[in-house]
Amino acid sequence: MLAYFRFELRRMIRDPRLLLFSVVTPVVSYVVFSGVSARSGDADADRAMATAMMIGLAGYGALFGVLAVGVGVSIERGTGWMRQLRATPLPPSRVVAVRAVLSTLSAFPPVVAVGLTGWLQHGITLSAGRWAWIALGLWLGTGPFALMGVAIGYGLKPQAAQSVSFLAFFGLSVLGGLLMPVTVFPVTLQRIAQWLPTYRYGELGWRASAGLAPSSVGVAILVGWAVAFAVIAASAYRRFAAIR
Fold it and tell me: Is the pLDDT of residue 144 over 70?
């Protein structure tokens, strides 16, 4: 299992698309949108908005990388790699676990890059402890999305997996408040957002930046999504293996 983990880690690091879409795109988006929105004339309000956007876009980039790595298994299905993997003694649960853990590691680069941009552009200065809690929260919180990506990758054909993954990612990011505050949504959408994994994921970072502990309700919702996606991912892998 460890050898498989190291092999997949090297493959992930060598993929330039991951750097482009999970790091460069969120950084550029943050520079543009935070520069436009942080012009109210109230320094404290502007700083708070810039901080919230920093965390939201860092989370956006992290989730993009996580889902891209997870959904990548759909492409491997067409190359024959998955047939070779089936011949190994690795059980489905460990294959799913390795892919899920690897995809969560892709969350760190965008969090660091967007955080550094926030410091350079807006002078956002948080204590080392708060930065650590933000990074830890945005890393651990990717678990449900890693499993979602793996479930999509094993459950759908490559063409469908890419489309479904993007639509799910973008839709959840918008409705979950990673790209814009949920406070601007209609009341009904605000209530829906409370149950979405993306909102509760962003909440980990937003609360950490304010020195607050994670919400117990938010953590419970994320765990619930993680369990659901884990079951779906394992089932999808078993179905794929059974028909090969």
Answer: yes
